[in-house]
Amino acid sequence: MTHKSVLIIAHDFPPIRTSGIYRPLKFAKYLPEFGWQPVVVSAQPFGVGALDDSMLRELPADVEVIRAERPSMLDWEARVYKRLLRRDPRELTRVSKSADHTGKPAPAPGTSWRNLLLRGVLSPARALLQHALYFPDDANLWARHAYQAAAEVVGRRKIDAIFSTSSPASAHLVAAALSRRFSIPWVADFRDPWTRNIPKQHDPALRRAIERRVEIAVLRRASQIIYISDRLAELAREAFPMVPASKFHVIENGYDESDFSGAGAYCASPDQPLTMLNVGTIYRSTGFESLLAVIEQLHADQPSLAPRLEHVGPLFSDQRQRLAKLDELGAVSLSGVVSHDRIAAMMVRADVHVLTVPDGAVDRPANIPGKLYEQLRSGRPILYVGPENDTSRHIANADAGWVFRAEQREELATKLTELVAAKRIGSLPHGALPSRVGHFERRQLTRLLSDRLIAAVEGRTS
Asked: pTM of this prediction?
């Protein structure tokens, strides 16, 4: 097969371990099957998160991955914070943006001089510094190096198309500059909204206005535009009427069947407690606290018959303190961060999956957690607690579990009691049938991306 070349601009890529790595990784893995040879320009490992080299083994040996330097003012901030407060601001950012999901600075508890200094001086100063220097985000210095690395690639080999994925939005600025300079068609992929994302609502009005103009320029320049849900694409068409509606397309996230090839099979184990598996970051403003309260009450009433929650992933200090209470009751198991190649096996073995999502703004219901697709593929039922949205509709359409609102604690307690009883007699229900979720398989989704790349090369938008 004669391959065309596609340059992938993806800031987040293994061994970095973020929620944004799976989409570009799986596309790079499967694009060669559809006639595209990827070259990936990413960032050097950064921040304070975990690294996982195992996922790089999924890539074909001839896929080139170039890691551009990622200098950042955050490194300087880290030295100042650590010297004065013994805290890392990169961790503070991760807490405020991931756990709270608002983008506001995380409040510091207590009234010590360190916390007063943090709240009264350093946090406001840091916010002002970020607005002045981090445009459109704190990967902007990386974007300069990524552009240089990508231009070098274009200089030594023929590139037929560019694919960029965000967040961070800096990746699209790299792709836009390359597309303009070298006249290469470009597909822009949005895993999250840009200026309409929730943390952006707290930015100063002038910055929001300038950044929106930049976003419009990016959307106009791109040959094809991809969002991860129908609702996000619909909202984008409404928000940007100056961009032809035919340029907007949808390719959802999904699961990789190969991840489940050695995962084994579910074993009922009726003599064991009902195991409820929660994977990934626990966001505030979700139904997770309602679920914890119900589990806590069931353990207080009938400890021998109560379910057990297993959490896999990071925890922030307040969450760890909250779960410590359940740990004392024997109601929770904390596994920490594990390599991705173990996740599928854990999902297949779980009795029930737990899924909660943030509530709130108009764009939020359109964001579908990437882990949902692996939960659907696992064949185990999903207990969803949260607002009605695209996620809950996916669960309902696949007949994959049960949907509750956070305030439905009594109904939730009843359902958990029923599930405990069903586990004891070996009659727990299954989750989604494979026939209902097969269109979310990563290979099939990559075929859709190949179609968009071909359309871009041919100058089509539809």
From this structure: 0.86
